[in-house]
Design a protein that fits this description.
By secondary structure, this protein is α/β, with parallel strands linked by helices. It has helices at 2-14, 16-21, 35-50, 61-70, 84-92, 112-115, 167-178, 186-194, 207-214, 228-232, 263-273, 276-284, 299-304, 309-314, 320-337; strands at residues 25-30, 53-58, 79-83, 96-97, 124-136, 158-160, 201-203, 220-224, 238-240, 248-257. Strands 1, 2, 3, 4, 5, 8, 9 and 10 form an eight-stranded mixed β-sheet that branches. Strands 6-7 form a two-stranded parallel sheet. Helix 3 links the parallel strand 1 (25-30) and strand 2 (53-58). The N and C termini lie far apart (79 Å). The relative contact order is 0.18. InterPro entries: SBP (IPR006059). Residues 1-21 form the signal peptide. This is ABC transporter substrate-binding protein. One of its GO terms (molecular function) is thiamine binding.
């Protein structure tokens, strides 16, 4: 009996991490987007590697942040994937912790804009996207965001509603082109308001744009790069604009829940997600543009995603503080000048 106990103790001593990990559950909060692919490419491989159980909660940003707030005293989620602005909102609410990037072996591989997106050490970017203008290259030429308002073009333009993810970034760049780039976006909103009856539509879903362009109802629209693939399949010539003011876009980040009892495991998962291998697999499936600078993509994937150091350095993202402090005002001004 004594020998059996000693043997059991020795066996446990050989693999204490495996023994403890097998009893652990990591809960993450993520976007509902492409979860089947995330399961096969990210979640299942990580479970096999760590010997732990991964629980995934999905939903929109408002719901997921509300749940984090409701469970602030006794956190349920260990790690969350959110937007840059939501990460800052969570930080201001005391819901997340500073990330010990020394424990992330893949941190140095990230593009600079993804290493500390909000400048507070509370988030790490895992994907970003460019926002620019998709346009009919046989019908028009786009050198500036302001070209969308030219009399000969505006009757063929769709512009994102301010309530969409693409609305504020597009307004931000239009404001820069017009020399009216104040945080309240009043200048570009007023400029659109003056031309609102000439614009084809203020769209809410980018999926409707491909058909409108195919039918030649529109020639141009600001879009996120993640929507670009649909335009490349049209039988009309469509180009991606590189305006002189630059491109804007957005970024999604990973955050650690404050008070989580599994932060070490969450950091392991974060590092796994940021690895060259995982970022490459997600990019090749056209799920996420890679934040890892070591990722090398096929021509097809590269052409459909936001990819490469030059592009990463060129993006002009709206600072999260500007978004949080002004979006209520943006909506008010939009409703006054442009309407529903």
């Amino acid at each position: 009996m004594k020998k059996a106990v000693i043997a059991s103790m020795a066996l446990s001593a050989l693999s204490p991490l495996a023994a403890s990990a097998a009893e652990r559950t990591l809960t993450i909060s993520a976007y509902a987007f492409a979860q089947d692919d995330f399961k096969s490419l990210v979640y299942d491989p990580f479970e096999a590697k760590c010997g732990c159980k991964l629980v995934v909660e999905t939903g929109n940003s408002v719901e997921r942040l509300a749940k984090m707030e409701a469970n602030k005293a006794n956190p349920v989620v260990d790690l969350a994937a959110v937007s840059m602005a939501d990460a800052l909102a969570a930080s201001r609410a005391g819901l997340i912790d500073k990330i010990d990037t020394a424990k992330l072996s893949n941190f140095a591989k990230l593009y600079d804009l993804a290493k500390d997106p909000n400048g507070d050490g509370m988030s790490v970017g895992y994907t970003f996207y460019a926002t620019s203008i998709a346009y009919r290259s046989d019908k028009m030429k786009i050198d500036s965001w302001a070209d969308l308002l030219k009399p000969e073009y505006i009757g063929h333009v769709a512009f994102p509603n301010v309530t969409t993810n693409q609305g504020p970034p597009a307004l931000y760049m239009l404001g820069q082109a017009l020399g009216k780039d104040t945080p309240d976006l009043k200048g570009p909103i007023e400029a659109l308001g003056e031309k609102k009856d000439e614009i084809v539509t203020f769209y809410e879903k980018s999926s409707q744009l491909v058909q409108l362009m195919q039918q030649e109802e529109i020639w141009a629209a600001p879009i996120g790069r993640f929507s670009w693939a649909g335009f490349t399949k049209l039988d009309v010539p469509v180009a991606w604009a590189t305006p002189k003011e630059g491109q804007t876009g957005g970024m999604n980040v990973l955050v650690l829940t404050k008070g989580s009892k599994n932060q070490d495991l969450a950091l392991q998962f974060m590092d796994f997600w940021l690895s060259t291998d995982i970022q490459t697999k997600l990019a090749e499936k056209l799920i996420d543009s890679p934040a890892n600078s070591e990722v090398k993509l096929s021509e097809t994937a590269a052409n459909n995603l936001t990819y490469g150091e030059v592009t990463a350095k060129s993006l002009k993202l709206i600072p999260s503080a500007v978004v949080l402090d002004n979006r209520a005002g943006w909506l008010k001004t939009w409703n006054e000048k442009v309407g529903q």
